[in-house]
Amino acid sequence: MLTTDKTKERVSIYQPEQEGLIFPEIPEFNSFSEEREYRKQHLVAATRAFGMHGFDYGFAGHLTVRDPERPELYWTNPMCVHFSQVKMSNLVLADHEGRVVEGEYAINRAGFVLHAAVHEEFPDVVAMCHAHTLYGTAWCATGRPLDMISQDAAAFYNKHAVIGASAGAVAVERESGWTVAKEIGRNRAVLHQNHGLLTTSRHSIDDAAFWFIALERACQQQLMVEATGIKPQLLSDKTAQYSQDNVGNDFIGWLHFQTLYSHIAATQPDMFE
Ligand SMILES: [Zn+2]
């Protein structure tokens, strides 16, 4: 049986087959400047989503997305600006050496080292997120990967790693950045022991941000289960893989984030300033 073009375009079971319904679609761009505007807006929304989730810890935490025209440069949040106050006009464009190419604010040097190393080592990594979250950092202290305790956790099945190297050391030295960069770039998610969570995406900042939020939640759920002292029933490998294929891919990460984007864009219009 022939597949119609319309069917071919469906990359997920969540995309409606019925026509005329409101559903997020990945936009197409006519110019680099259009795409840049989109990436910056979604970076701002991702940063504010982190603020809404309480992921701030002083100046710690950084999100990056590559510039579409100059992929050796990436946009990031300004240092010492609360996640909830990041806006289009205070984003910073930086190069691999940590030099600010555009923008008025300084950038977090620790953030630069880690992100620059990953972006340089893996040219296809589009976006990356890192923060010192409460549950993620707590779970990272165990040095254990996540157990497959739920369908949500299955998004990280065989796609996350625990890194013990440079554990707990402030990642300001280039050496430290390179050591962890290789592991970070290979995985959707990394639990950096005694430090915090990191996510990367080859799809979008939306995807990296959503799976970061999901990762923090998975760490919280794992801690809650552990606290009961009851041994949890785990997903089988087959079920975990099935769940990941259907509800844990890059498109689904992007799609989940559109819910947050719409909410933030509607309720926090100063993000566009
Ligand atoms: Zn950190």
TrEMBL record:
Coiled coil: none annotated. GO terms for molecular function: actin filament binding. It comes from the Bacteria. SMART domains: Aldolase_II. One of its GO terms (cellular component) is cytoskeleton. It holds the Pfam family Aldolase_II. Residues 41-223 form the Class II aldolase/adducin N-terminal domain. Belongs to the aldolase class II family. This is Class II aldolase/adducin family protein. It comes from Skermanella aerolata.
